[in-house]
Design brief:
The protein is of the alpha+beta class. About 30% of the residues lie in helices and about 10% in strands.
Length: about 140
């Protein structure tokens, strides 16, 4: 039996040690989702056990100063056309709803069969969304 190893990486800004994490990805087992996140966040590949050794929860909060700094943007919405792209398994149409608060002309696209990394998971559908958006402009 191989020794247990746990991958930790540092965050870009705060340089805190974290475990790579992410949202579950549709059609992938939890262990395969973990493997994908480890590769996307840290560029590593390895053997992922099928059985979890534990779990944790955390609350990700926006900084109050960020919200206060962005508030003036609501008074002067973005006037150029905006393509808001969400993934079917990650954010979905929430991206277009959020951008509609700060832009006048928002077109939403939810890319099917995609999660955290749309360009790798469904590049053809993403390219089609771009082509349709720019064809109408």
């Amino acid at each position: 039996m191989a020794a247990l190893e746990i991958l930790v990486v540092t965050t870009r800004q705060s340089r805190h040690w974290i475990v790579p994490k992410g949202w579950p990805i549709k059609r992938l087992t939890p262990s395969k989702s973990a493997a994908r996140e480890a590769f996307e966040e840290a560029g590593v590949r390895g053997k992922i056990g099928a059985r979890a050794i534990g779990n944790f929860t955390y609350k990700k909060t926006a900084r109050q100063t960020d919200a206060e700094q962005n508030r003036p943007q609501y008074a002067d919405p973005i006037s150029c056309p905006v393509l808001a792209v969400g993934a079917q398994a990650y954010l979905g149409d929430a991206v277009s709803r959020q951008l509609a608060q700060v832009a006048r002309d928002v077109r939403g696209a939810v890319i099917p069969a995609s999660g955290h990394n749309i360009a790798l998971e469904n590049p053809a559908a993403l390219a089609q969304a771009y082509l349709e958006f720019f064809a109408d402009r």
